[in-house]
Amino acid sequence: MTLNEKIEKEPVLRLAGLTKRFGGIIATDHLDFDVRAGEIHGLIGPNGAGKSTLVAQIQGNLRPDEGSIIFEGRDITVEAPHRRAKLGVARSFQITSVFMGFTMLANVMMAVQAQAGHSMWFWKNTSMDSSLIDPAMELLELVGLTRSAQALAQNVSYGERRQLELAMALAMKPKLLLLDEPMAGMGRQDGGRMISLLETLKGRYSILLVEHDMDAVFTLSDRISVLVAGRCIATGSPEKIKSDAGVRDAYLGHKST
Amino acid sequence: MTLSSVRQLVVPNWPVLLIFVLLALAPVWSMYGGSDFTIRLLTRALILALAAVGLNFVLGFGGLVSLMHASFFGVGAYTVAILAHHDFNGDTLFGLPGTSNLLVSGPAAVFLALVFAVATGALVLRTKGAYFIMMTLALNQMLFFFMIALQQYGGEDGMQIYLPLHLSGYEFGSDSAIYYTVLIVLAFFVFLLSRLVCSRFGNVIRASSENEERLTAIGISPFHYKLVAFTISGAVTAVAGVLWAISQEYVSPADLSWIRSADLVVIAVLGGLVRVWGPLVGALVFVLAEYFLSDITVYWQLVFGLGIIAVVVLFPGGMLSVWATIRKINWGRAHDA
């Protein structure tokens, strides 16, 4: 095997024996897990399974107690969140988190600016800086927000803010996208739009998709992992997960689907 | 009402030019009918305006409620006064001679303020919200009591500057000369900070007041940016302190008490936080109200307090949003979109 092939084979993200405890509760239990280059890896599990805790550990807001996080062959277990972001780990939040007092355009420009190196620039007016505006407008167009570019984030609909989250994550030229319930709280119509949007990203980005909406996960994912009580009880193609008896018992069986 | 919702109010920038033109004409007007006192009053207003403009950079744009900006003001004023004091006595300070030359003591004052701001900022910026306010208040009072304890420099009574302060020989011959100096320095910093808040650096500062978690997630750790902003802010307020020493020829611990810090916050909020020049409006209203109301009643602070409440409730964007707020009122016309 040549070195190049080896790098190809190396997953974008690999978790080895990851463990996180909160007092007596184990939120992440010796988890081994990976996201391959270019795949959408769905992560499902009942409430309290530790999905958001896992995302927070990969992004860096939470420090794991044991185990390691390998990102593109590099150990980032103890790296600070903003450094991981610079390396290419981008996250959208389960609870919408944008700059409410900024316009939609300014929100994305902020993410473009963050990606473009340090921000100790004191003089040039950014509202005329095409190196920030142009890529930001392109991303707004990609997620379908061109018309509300000049609206303040606090004045647009909830669905639009979810789309904005995605645009900001994409502005970081991510090598790994962590999408924490991108469809949470969305209506059927907005949700449908988000699904088709994510479909256009398929193959171009490596994505870890945490989502409660089963239709979305089974439509979009190349592989699915099922998390129960901090453990991964099954990983495989959507078909395999659907027919997995253990998964049915632990999770899908409780649903009326 | 939060800062971000106040930002919805569209406040134009042109009124600041009008205000500066009117202020530039004030000495002419005072020659015909006004008095020197008017100029001294306006000088006081402009110096407080500059101090509050410095504060507002972290308060209005960074969302940091600092109650220690009087200490930066005091560092600026006391540095000039202490150096002039040693010049007058003909003795030395740490082996260095004193000076009344502002081209030396001015930069020395700003340098000390920078060092003080970096040291204190590195401490207080690790805290947030109410803790930040209490930490800045505590640091302010530490310097306040330190200056009271320094009997050599007047202690509680403060100290007079006996020798005329000068710029390498040029002395300020009149109140108007000092007034114009203050006005030019103020205009310079308003311009400088207006550029700063629109820059990439300014974006980071505004974004950090909106949502630090998001800022970190897109790859920017706000701490160092906030420290630079805090230092710039402190230095600008220290420059106001230098001008204070020039115009009053007297400094006292009262100039750096926490009450002065609170006054600066009031001036910034009263004027409006969303523009760099908001505190200029606030300071003019503050100083003029102080003067005219205290003429009418000794309980002027009570009246003034009610006025502040009225402004904050009716015009959450401060005085400079009065017009923008009035325009948003529907006046009962349902068809008016």
Secondary structure layout plus pairing:
The complex is a heterodimer of chains A (257) and B (337).
Chain A: H1 3-9, E1 13-22, E2 25-35, E3 40-44, H2 51-59, E4 66-71, E5 74-75, H3 81-87, E6 89-92, H4 104-115, H5 130-142, H6 158-171, E7 176-180, H7 188-201, E8 207-210, H8 214-220, E9 223-228, E10 231-236, H9 238-243, H10 245-250
Parallel strand pairs in A: 3-8, 3-9, 6-7, 7-8
Antiparallel strand pairs in A: 1-2, 1-4, 4-5, 9-10
Chain B: H1 3-6, H2 14-31, H3 36-59, H4 69-89, E1 92-93, E2 96-97, H5 102-124, H6 129-149, E3 159-160, E4 166-167, E5 170-171, H7 175-198, H8 200-210, H9 212-217, H10 222-248, E6 250-251, H11 258-271, H12 278-296, H13 300-314, H14 322-328
Antiparallel strand pairs in B: 1-2, 3-6, 4-5
Summary keywords:
heterodimer; A: about 260 residues; alpha/beta; Rossmann fold; 2 domains; 4-stranded antiparallel β-sheet; globular; B: about 325 residues; mainly alpha; ABC transporter involved in vitamin B12 uptake, BtuC
